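User: Could you check the structure of this?
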Amino acid sequence: IAFRSLEGKIRDKDEQWKTAVHEAGHAVAALVLAPESLSTATIIPQGRVRGHVRFVRGESITESIDVVEDNAVIALSGSAAEEIILGKRYTSSMDDFTKARRNIFFLLWGIGAYGIEFAGFASSQHGEQPLSTTLAEKGELICSEKLKEFYNESTNIISENKDLVELIAHSLVEKSTLSKDDLLSLYKMKEEQKGA
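Assistant: Sure, the predicted structure tokens are below.
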């Protein structure tokens, strides 16, 4: 059976499975780190996106460092799932890495986390840049280190919950979309099996 995306491209079973594994990775990390914010997971293509996991955010626009870091780990977990379940990355996960990087830069430049003090910014064709080149280089180094740290955390979450990732991926292939209740039910079932 082939599936047509919104762009009219054929989605074969193999591509559908790869997308399901990727989205299941995001969902599992969210179930572990922030289950209250999870809304749905789907492999129904929308525009150029093959699938997505939707979140419900609280009303507060300010989030703790832990929440922003968890969001970065969740963003990287789709790629981690592909590597662990499929043996390598298949989908273009550049958007996920960009989201994780954006979270880290918010912590660095927005609130001065990781030992960086606010130093002012200058506008350029590349967006807002720190006034100090040395500070910008230090920020890039910290960002690279944090990306590695968060990717390792996402890999650990996926490795510890590999069976759950596969269960959610199979469910996504079967149903295309899973609600928060569906995801929580699968998570609870796997947790009960671990405890038995």
